[in-house]
Amino acid sequence: MKPLRTALFTPGNRLERAEKAVGLGADAVIIDLEDAVPIAEKESSRVLVRKVLEEHPGKRMYVRINALNTPFANEDLEAVVSKNLNGIMLPKVESTEDIFEIDRLLTDLEKRNGLETGAIEVISICETAKGLEEIYPIVSAKPTYHRVSVVAFGAADYTLDLGISLTMEGKELEYPRSRIPIACRAAGIMPPLDTAWMVDLKDIDGLIADAKKAKAYGFQGKIVIHPNQIDPCHNVFTPTKEEIAYAKKVIHAFEEAEREGKAAIQLEEKFIDYAVVEKYRRICALAQAIANRN
Q1: How far apart are CA 52 and CA 169, in angstroms?
Q2: Which of 9, 125, 202, 293 has its Cα between 20 and 30 A from that of 220?
């Protein structure tokens, strides 16, 4: 799966905003049929979302459907499963049963629409206490097609569920931010997407600090809810030229030493062994994947 530094949300009931979002440079666009769409507009919004999907082939687009336990989910899926859909963002995931059910539903729709079975990805959102407690079973579930490509953390519903408040400092998010990346790594899937910065949309410095915290916990990127959040998040989650240059220097020095029969060296007073070299190889691989995207 290609890197996901930013996933830009756009409301499914606003055609002009969804079409604009596709061209704003985020790594992916998530068209929302859940919280952003009033109940009275669910049906008409599905038509608009399908139109956006059909008119933008080659773009990386996902649709957040309504939760499986609502009366809207099945009709959401019926409307949006098509050749240009990369995947479904599934909210309120709290059990492995949800993962097996979404796989069953998508497999049926892929077959009926003449699509490759198993090709549609699922971004599973962790946004409740129960979802967090079940996170490892959820990400390691093995239905017929292992569709969960990445997990997203949704702090708004998580804090609502716990009856606590989102703060600028984000201490209330330390536990889920620690646990979710570990579960994803243990299950062998991509690093997760961090929650959107919602405390103050105009506070770009706050956004950057929050993104750096998420990166330190092991998240690969961040959900963004405004175009002005895209570039700052890209900057945080993209290796710098200096980081890439140093990574290449470490790899070269270690490979030279390895040819001489050494498996541990010092470079600029820093200890380098296989684990350290692997870290820098991953940095180079990430930088190349981002470069290939651009």
Answers
A1: 37
A2: 202
Residue-wise pLDDT tens digits, 62-90: 999 999 999 999 999 999 999 999 999 99
**Residue 227 DSSP symbol:** G
Rounded-to-integer distance, Cα 27 and Cα 49, Å: 19
Residue 165 lies in a domain: yes
Model-level pTM? 0.92
Does residue 175 lie in a domain region? yes
Contact 58, 27 (CB under 8 A): no
Ramachandran angles phi, psi of 6, nearest 5°: -140, 140
What integer pLDDT is reported at residue 294 of this predicted model?
60
Query: Strand 265-267 to strand 270-272: parallel, antiparallel, or no bridges (unpaired)?
Result: antiparallel
Q: For residues 156 and 199, what is the distance between their CA atoms, to the nearest angstrom? A: 10
Among 65, 61, 54, CA closest to 29: 61
